[in-house]
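Query structure, 222 C-alpha cells:
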C-alpha cells in the first residue's frame, strides 16, 4: 500500500500515519519529524532549516524532495509501500514527488485527505503545546502554519481528485473513529488498486458520513 496524506496541522497526520504504517507494515515517512531530528542533532541541514521551522514557514522544496527520494528508494529496495506524512505541501512538491515516484515505479495508490476546521485545529494544537512544548506550537506560529496550509497545501487536493486517487475523511471526530474509517477505506481500496487503473477511479468522499450516520434525535427514536 502506497499512501500520501494531505492534512492541516493538528488534523492527526502523525497519529493516523503511524496507524496506517503498523496496519500495513510499511514505513511511516514524516518530513516534519525528520527535519526536527536534524534540528535536534544540529546537523548542517538542521541549522539551515531551524529558523523556518520555528516561524512555521516551509523549508526549501529540494530538501524535502531529497528525503522523499531516499524514502522511495529504501521502500522499493525493501519491497514495501510507504505512508508519506508532511509531503507534498505545495503543487511544485506534488508534481516533483510524482515524477520521482514515476521514475522509481513507486507512485501513490491513495492520497488521503484529512479534513478539519480551523477552530478545532487551533484548540488541538494549543493542547499539544501544553504537553509537548514543540517550538512551533505557539498561537502565532500555529496561525501561520494554518494559513500556509490553506493557501498553498489545500489547493493540491483537487489535483489528486483529478488523478483518481483521492480519499477524503472527516478528521473532526475522535482519533479511533477516524482511524477505523481510514483503515476500512484503505482495505477496500487495496483490492481495487490492482484491478482498476487510477484514471478510471473516482474520488472517494467520506466526509459526509458523520452527518449521514450521526446520532440525531430522530435516529435515537427510530
Ligand atoms: P504540522 O503539519 O503540524 O505543521 P509537520 O511536523 O508536518 O507539522 O511539519 C512541521 C514543519 O516542518 C512545517 O511547518 C515546515 O516548516 C516543515 N516541513 C515539513 N514538511 C515540509 C515540506 N514538505 N515542505 C516544506 N516544509 C516542510
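Result returned for the query:
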Amino acid at each position: 500500500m502506497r499512501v500520501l496524506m494531505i492534512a492541516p496541522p493538528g488534523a492527526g497526520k502523525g497519529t493516523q500515519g503511524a496507524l496506517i504504517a503498523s496496519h500495513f507494515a510499511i514505513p511511516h515517512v514524516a518530513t516534519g519529524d525528520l527535519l526536527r531530528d536534524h534540528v535536534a542533532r544540529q546537523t548542517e541541514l538542521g541549522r539551515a532549516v531551524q529558523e523556518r521551522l520555528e516561524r512555521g514557514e516551509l523549508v526549501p522544496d529540494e530538501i524535502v524532495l531529497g528525503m522523499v527520494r531516499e524514502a522511495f528508494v529504501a521502500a522499493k529496495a525493501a519491497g514495501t509501500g510507504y505512508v508519506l506524512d508532511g509531503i507534498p505541501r505545495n503543487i511544485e512538491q506534488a508534481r516533483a514527488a510524482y515524477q520521482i515516484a514515476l521514475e522509481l515505479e513507486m507512485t501513490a495508490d491513495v492520497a488521503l485527505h484529512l479534513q478539519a476546521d480551523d477552530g478545532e485545529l487551533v484548540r488541538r494544537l494549543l493542547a499539544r503545546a501544553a504537553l509537548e512544548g514543540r517550538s512551533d506550537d505557539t498561537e502565532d506560529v500555529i496561525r501561520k502554519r494554518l494559513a500556509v496550509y490553506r493557501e498553498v497545501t489545500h489547493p493540491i487536493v483537487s489535483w489528486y481528485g483529478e488523478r483518481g486517487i483521492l480519499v477524503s475523511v472527516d478528521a473532526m471526530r475522535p482519533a479511533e473513529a477516524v482511524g477505523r474509517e481510514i483503515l476500512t477505506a484503505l482495505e477496500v481500496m487495496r483490492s481495487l488498486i490492482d484491478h482498476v487503473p487510477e484514471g478510471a477511479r473516482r474520488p472517494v468522499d467520506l466526509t459526509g458520513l458523520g452527518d449521514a450516520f450521526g446520532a440525531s434525535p430522530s435516529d435515537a427514536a427510530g
